[in-house]
Amino acid sequence: MQTLPPFDELKAMAENDPDQLEALRLSMSEEIISQASKEMQPRLRAQLSHINHVIGYGKNPNHTNILLMAELQQQLRRLAQALNAPETLSDQTAEIRPFRRPEPDS
């Protein structure tokens, strides 16, 4: 398993070779996911895809950090809700109505 380089090396990568830092992030993420159970891997890949989308939306590193922090806070709120009031969680929030054909004009 890869080890995270020292902070100074990561800082230098961020300043001088951000593509190398991104490659390291992705390879370490993939390594962690591949070591998870087969049942959890699809959920972890979906979470990584969502994180990548958030990162891609960021306009600069500070904006990206703010977006990621907001995502983390939302996940923590959902975890707290699952622990404290699991009955309030629902997968379906849409109201499903039956389709009715319009009445023919008489």
Automatic annotation (TrEMBL):
It comes from the Bacteria. Residues 97-106 have a biased composition (Basic and acidic residues). Residues 84-106 are annotated as: Disordered. This is DUF3135 domain-containing protein. It comes from Photobacterium aquae.
